[in-house]
Amino acid sequence: MHPGEASEPSAPRGEASAEANSTANAEANATSNATPLARHGRLPRRHPVVSLIKGLAIALVVVVVSAGSIGAIATWQILGGAKPTAQFTAAVPSGAASTAPAVSAYSGEVNMLVVATDTRTGQGAAFSDPADQRASSGAGQNDTNLLVHINADHSQMLVISLPRDLEFPFPACPNGSGGTTPASSQAMLNTALVRGGTKGGLQCAADAVSQLTGVRIDYAALATFSDVVSMSNAIGGVTVCLATPIDDDNVTPALHLKAGNVNLVGAQAGAFLRSREGVGYGGDTSRISSQQIFMSAMMRKIVSAGTLTNPVKLYGLASTAVRSVQLSSTLDPKTLVTIGLAIKGIGLSNMVFLAYPNLPDPADSNRVIPDPAGVAILRSALQSGTHVALSPNSLGQAAVTQSPAAQGAPATSAPATPPAAPATKPSGAGSGAPTPQSTSAVLPGTATGQNASQQTCAAKKY
C-alpha cells in the first residue's frame, strides 16, 4: 500500500455488508475467574518454544506456549476461566477432503486463524467517545487477519498476514443464526465479522481465508484492543528497534517515539501495532511490516535464554489470554498442548512472517488484490508441505536491517542514538532476507516479510 491510503475505518466497495456493525457481542465481553493452579507435585518444565503476536492478536498463542510448557492439568484449569467459545466448523476449501488428519505432537499440519477486531465496544473510556463508536462498534471489522500454518513434519511455521483492504470474491457466510449471508462478487476481507454477525463472524473470516489460501482451517480465535494491552503488560513488553522517530496522532494513545531501541508495553504497544501513519509509507501494508518486526522481536525474547522459563509466569500469561480472547469451539486443552508440542523444535529462522501476495488494485489505489502468481506458489506450498522462502530484498515496507551496533544497544524511553538512516526504497523493497534454500518454494516480491532470526528496525519512509 502507498501514501494516500484511505484512513480507518474503510467501507467495503461493492455489495453492502449483511448485518449492521452496531450489533453487540455479549459473548465476547463475558469474563470469569481462572481456577487456581493444581499442586500435584512439580509439573515438568519444557522449553517455552514460541509465542505469536499479530497486531491485536497477541494473546492466543501465549496459550499455546503455556500449553506446551505447564501441562494439560494447568491448561484445563486455565480454560475454566475462558470466555464462551465462538461457533465454528472447520473451514474446508473447495476440493479439500472432508476430514483433516489428526493434529498431534508428532504428526499432522496445523492451520489456525487469529483475528483481531477493531470494535470500540467494551474497550474502556479511551474508546468511548462518539467518534470512536461511530468508527467501529458491535462485532467490528476484522482489522488483523493472521493464519498460523505449521507444516506436517513440524519443520517450519508460517505466520501469514492477510491485508484488511484485500478485495476478492467473498464466499457466502453462515450468520450464526441459521441463515446465510450471500456471496459477494467483490468485497474487502475486513467485512467478514459484519457479514457473519456476532455469532458467525469468526466462521465467516475462516471461510474467506480458507478460500484465499486453499487450506482447511480447524482452529480460530478473536481478540480485541484490550487483549494486546493485557498481554504486553504480562510479558513485560517487547523491545523494538526504531530507525526513525515514530509519530502518529491517529491512534489511541497518540504515538510519539524517538529513534533507537524502545521497550513497548501496554497501551503503547497496542498503539504501535495499530499505527499506519507513523511507519513505512503510511498504509496497511506498512503496518503489517511493523507488526512483523514486533512479532520477530517477541519471538527472540520468548526463546532467549532465561526468558519465560518460569511455569508460574507462563500460567499467569495463559490465564490472562484465555480470559480475554474468544476461542473457537474446536479449540480444547488437548489441542493446545499438541500445537505447543508441534512447534517445540522449530528454530527462529524457520518461523517466517509474510504478507499474503498482493498487488495494488488498478481500480482503487486504496485497496489491494491477490497476486495470482504469488498466490499460486503459496497455495501449492501450503498444500504440499513444502518450505516457503521469501525472495531476496523482500523486507516489508516499514522495515530496514538493524545495524550490529543497534542490536546491542539497551532499550530506553530517553533519546537514543538512532540506527543508520534507511535508504528510500519502492514498495516492497528491503534487504536482509536470507538466501532461499533450493528445496523451498520462493515467493515473489509481492509477498514481503522476514523470519524471526532477522533483526530489523521500523522506519517511516515518506
UniProtKB/TrEMBL annotation:
Similarity comment: Belongs to the LytR/CpsA/Psr (LCP) family.
Xref: InterPro entries: LytR/CpsA/Psr_CW_biosynth, LytR_CpsA_psr
Residue numbers spanned by region Disordered: 1-42, 399-462
Keyword Cell inner membrane: no
The keyword Methyltransferase belongs to this UniProt entry's keyword annotation: no
Protein name listed in UniProt: LytR family transcriptional attenuator
Compositionally biased region (Low complexity): 15-35, 401-415, 422-434
Keywords: Membrane, Transmembrane, Transmembrane helix
A Pfam family the protein falls into: LytR_cpsA_psr
Chain ranges of the Cell envelope-related transcriptional attenuator domain: 142-303
Compositional bias ranges of the Polar residues kind: 435-462
Taxonomy, superkingdom: Bacteria
Transmembrane domains' residue ranges: 52-79
